[in-house]
Amino acid sequence: MLKISKLFFVFLIIFSCTKNEKIDVVSNESSHPKLILTAQGVRDIRAQLGNIPIFDNSLKRVKEEIDAEIALGIDVPIPKDYSGGYTHARHKRNWVVLQKAGVLYQILDDEKYAKYVKDMLMKYEEMYKTLPLHPKTRSYARGKLFWQCLNDSNWLVYVSQAYDCIYNYLSEEERNKLETNLFRPFADHISVDSPQFYQRVHNHSTWGNAAVGMIGLVMNDQELIDRALYGIKGVNLDKKAKDDDGGYLNKDGKAGFLANIEEPFSPDGYYNEGPYYQRYAMYPFLVFAEGLHNVKPELKIFEYKNGVLLKSIKALLNLSDADGDFFPLNDGQKGMSYYNDALVTAVDISYHFGKQDPGLLSIAAKQNKVLLDDSGLAVALGVKNGKTKPFDKKSINLSDGSKGKQGGVGILRNENIELVFKYASQGSSHGHYDKLSFSLYEKGEEVIQDYGLARFVNIEQKGGGNYLKENKTWAKQTIAHNTVTQNETSHYNGKYEIGSQNHPDLHYFSFTNKNIQVSSAKVAKTYPGTDMQRTIAVIKDEGFEKPYVLDIMKVVANKSNQYDFPYYFLGQVLSTNFKYSIPEILKPLGNKNGYQHLYLEGFGKSNKDNTKFSWLNNGKFYSLTTISNTNDEILFTRIGANDPDFNLRREAAIMLRRKNTKNTLFVSSIEAHGSYSPVSESAVNSKSNIKELKVVIDTLDYTAISITTLNGDTKLFITANTEASKEATHKLTINNENYEWSGSYYFK
């Protein structure tokens, strides 16, 4: 097989050198290909074929894939289905096949690929000019090939690249036919005919802007390019109109590709919709930016907003766990990872157009494939030449908001423990009502989970593959998250128009001490008259096998309330230090705001100063210790009530309920410890090492917690609740002992 591969690439090199090349490099604007794969890039790639293993293998796989598609013949069905249906899936597959076939034509100089692209495009031209709006009416912006303009835009982003690759293969008459009957009307439909989709700041419009701009670059149509960059001239949308997810279409009147870079990205590169949709939007952001860089270098697009597009890739990679799966913040599907093709694009483009960070090469090596273009070649050469270094994920704070002033996400990493602290803004229409929530991971496995979205993407049997009603009734609600819910009502009353106007604020983030990482944030207005402050620390202490979490939630209110504080643990319950009863009949915990989806599986009351709970998950032990009083209720809940279609995962939580309380303090620790082997049937270090947690002081300015271990060692953690700058000095007397320190916290 190895000999065949070598002969194959030797043949390619000889063939490409002896045949007349249809590559013209007169100028950036007139030469083709020029968009993503460039004329010079084709030459460079052909010169290296057979000597760049990761590129050669990527090319081989794509060739096998497209040869199989060509053998099946062309299918361009009349559109009729939602996501997951046959016509949707076929047109989606076609856009990928067209793009890859165009690239193969350029790299292999084999006319069969150009002919295949041409023949399919002509079938689309023949069909498209006869198409009405898509027959499915669910979307706020219906497409023609697909049920929503978003997918039509996906199609044009990819197909623009295919058209660029065969541009010189086509006659002028053929190009005029395609541009007049297919590409120009297509671009018009997703933009001027659908301003509610196009004229906004959102991941949807990013795809639309990129689609219009990329076909404009290929056609050298300045009007389309300007429409892509700046939006549609003279269009003013109703500022109160909303999309299918409840988000405003265009409240601020901003639109166009540049606005979509300016508004959603923070200076740190965090995208306000969260990593799942950042991953989705990165492809159009980056390929259109690459096209602009290649064709319109004077725009300096990769320098726009201090180079935020390239910064965002590093931010996105840091928003993944040890296995590369993205943290499912907001509407995020679990399991989406940096192995997705969009991240292959992101890594390659970031390396090629950025500072050639060798850490990115380690991600590319794990992905085991590269783009078949100039950037993929650069990565392949970097890997081949031994420049690879590990991509080092450390504790990091990513600000949110266009100016970095709307909260953020803090990721605390200590050995194999990762804690994600979300104190971000609402996150557009895909945001959840989960201020000051967190999730916890060990070695890439969830310990305390964030539910993510309620959707089976592209599975037709589940709501056509689209968002399910449970996404609004459960997944977005506050009680679905590891944070405080007041009076069984979601933050901001579950209203986007309120949530989008408010956000938490960072109090401090400290990670200079390798043994202690701390993040603290505050939020007001989640409930009228209530302020919350949460401080979370991941502490590596010599008395513990692994780093443990100290969680302090301070609530200050102007009246008495009921507070519910769940921890959505994954695994099997092992033990508790409190008695509880199990109901004979399972009933929902409430009737709205997500409570209607929770079964009450167990009920108990705290009878000690510390409530303890332990569980086993994936061969590892975990323990929760929380400071409690005799009036605290402890609930075992399970997701799944009022869910006759089984759209929700049947997962559990332990919930702390505190009634008739005004100001309060929730303090808990979470320990990861020991292991269990089913092979040797041995349990090692299966019990908590914490004897007692105690509130030593809690004032407006300071909260101090003592942590005492089983062997009697006591450590004190003090957090500054008001003045927490690095330069601030603090003096505090506790139990006749004086404590002095500078900075945000004290631990000793």
Structure description:
By secondary structure, the chain is an alpha+beta fold. It has 18 helices and 27 strands. The longest helix is centred in the N-terminal third of the chain and has 23 residues, at 86-108. It starts with a helix and ends with a strand.
Please give the CATH architecture of the domain at 396-747.
Distorted Sandwich
Provide the spatial order of strands within the biggest beta sheet.
Answer: 7-8-9-10-19-16-15-12
What gap, in angstroms, lies between the N and C termini? Answer: 62 Å
Number of helices: 18
Gyration radius, rounded: 28 Å
Ranges with pLDDT <50 over ≥5 residues?
Answer: 1-27
Shape: globular
Kindly state the number of beta strands: 27
Helix fraction bin: 25-40%
CATH topology of the domain at 396-747: Beta-galactosidase, Chain A, domain 5
CATH class of the domain at 396-747: Mainly Beta
Structural class: alpha+beta
How much of the sequence lies in strands comes to 15-25%
Mean pLDDT: 95
Largest sheet, strands/sense/barrel: 8 strands, antiparallel
